[in-house]
Amino acid sequence: MDTATAPSREELREQLIRTKIAGDVATSRENNLDHYRSLAVRDPHYMFGLTMDGDWTYRDILALMAKSAGVIADPEFRSGRDTIDPDRTIDALDAMGDRIAATLKRGDAKVLIATGHPTGLLTTHLALARLARKHGATLLTPGEQRSFASGGLGRKRRIRYLDDVAMLDDGGALVHTHDPAPMQAMLLELGGEKPDLVIADHGWAGAAGEAGVETVGFADSNDPGLFVGEAEGKIAVTVPLDDNVLPRHYDPMNRYLISRVESGL
Length: 265
Fold this sequence. Notes:
Layout lengths: L8 H10 L4 E6 H12 L3 H4 L10 H11 L12 E4 L1 H19 L5 E5 L7 H13 L3 E2 L7 E3 L6 E7 L2 E5 L4 E2 L5 H10 L6 E5 H9 L4 E5 L5 H7 L5 E4 L10 H13 L2
Parallel strand pairs: 3-4, 3-7, 3-9, 9-10, 10-11
Antiparallel strand pairs: 1-2, 5-6, 6-7, 7-8
Helix pairs in contact: 5-10, 6-10, 7-8
């Protein structure tokens, strides 16, 4: 990827708002608040494999999401469209880029990349996999074809890698998942060869952070688990963004992030 064409911060900010990756996003307020309540009662689907040391009431989670992602802080705002602050997105991209650069600078870094959003963020993870290989990292690929019973009717899903990015498939399609079990199994298979860094989202990121692996991740405004994990020190960086817009819309963000990483090498 030609980082000479990376957008400036202001150019990226405008593009994030225009494509609704940040700014006035498509996620509804009702959906956000429902997920915050679900996390507050420790629904495993929203915990992404993380445990929560603090009390983390519904109001606490809303306040954290206002601070970390830029959702509307007013608890009386209960319907309509919510927001993600594009400046918080870009600040987190900078922090993520610095973490990735620090790992790659160590030499022969072991990196594990995974996504539960193959219809959206896959392009970002693929770009980061290419970047890591370019700078001498080893991309770990444990557990390929290992199967899990998840989803309706006990349907089997398997770990599949596309250019060293882990996802789940159901035999005919790549699938959206919050499930932490695949990452838990992958880390168990690696044994003592733990990654130096995991780049992921959803349960892939949560399970890695819970296992004590340095983890950076992406999360939507309706996915508060990784933000709680970051607040408790288990996730190094969580980037707030809409995680399922058209894949091509992430390209300027990818170029910006890669430029940030390469400036730190």
